[in-house]
Design brief:
The protein has 293 residues and is an alpha/beta fold. The protein has one domain: NAD(P)-binding Rossmann-like Domain (Rossmann fold). It has nine helices and seven strands; from the N terminus they run E-H-E-H-E-H-E-H-E-H-H-E-H-H-H-E. Strands 3-2-1-4-5-6-7 form a seven-stranded parallel beta sheet, with helices on both faces. Helix 1 (53-64) runs parallel beside helix 2, helix 1 packs across helix 8 (259-270) and helix 4 (148-169) packs parallel to helix 6 (195-215). The two termini are 28 Å apart. GO terms for molecular function: oxidoreductase activity, acting on CH-OH group of donors. Keywords: Oxidoreductase. Residues 1-15 have a biased composition (Polar residues).
Amino acid sequence: MATGEQSFPPQTQEKQPGKEHLMEPSPQAAAGDYKPAHKLRGKVALVTGGDSGIGRAVCYYFALEGATVAFTYVKNQEDKDAADTLQMLRQATVEETRGPIAIAADLGYEDACKKAVDDVVAAFGRVDVLVNNAAEQHVAPELQQVDEARLERVFRTNFFSYFFMAKYCLDHMKAGSAIINTTSVNAYRGHPTLIDYTATKGAIVAFTRALHAQVVGRGIRVNAVAPGPVWTPLIPSSFPEEKVANFGKNVPMGRAGQPHEIAPSFVFLASDQDSSYIAGQVLHPNGGVVVNG
């Protein structure tokens, strides 16, 4: 469905991280007409925040394309979503691919990032593709509502984790590897009630460009994806019911995207066949919003 009328049942969740299994309707991580072509066969991929939303869809599509997949989640809060994702990945795993693993971690802290990477390397020997995707957001109509503790927490989840995951993955990456960061359309057009979240997403764009310049000479490509409104657990755990019911209607296509519509951008950037000459760039699957930069 390119465009059309859409609404979601009014719903909220009390806290983040949101839970996909409580959402109605469930986000769509898979599209039945997707045709895998072994684009990632033999690669080891690590996806942060891979238990739900865009992260789950990326893990699933990577598995379909032949990658061995590891993902992180928040223990005691996302256990069911993580288990559901593992089941999906096991069903998608192709021959000669190692079984998927889920790693519980609070990636806002450097030691936790190092341990997550060490766990993947211990299991699979290396990291070929890092997808930095974990995120949180909180509504604040006024700047004065964002205190130091919240600002630090949002930056730890949304930016510090990207920085430190890249730092430790690079120790195990060879030429042909890829890092893909999840930013947002809000980094380009702003969002009046998600000001701290938007600031982290702008930082991710700058980080992507700077890291690209540092490692492209090693044959490692760094890119990003900037989704528009997508139906993920962030939405009911961030916004009040009336906002959820109308989520996504403000883009030219008139609807929110589904995770399976975003995941192919990550496959494209992870695939040497598709994007070997693309580095330091941002893809924009955002429902038709035209952005600059």
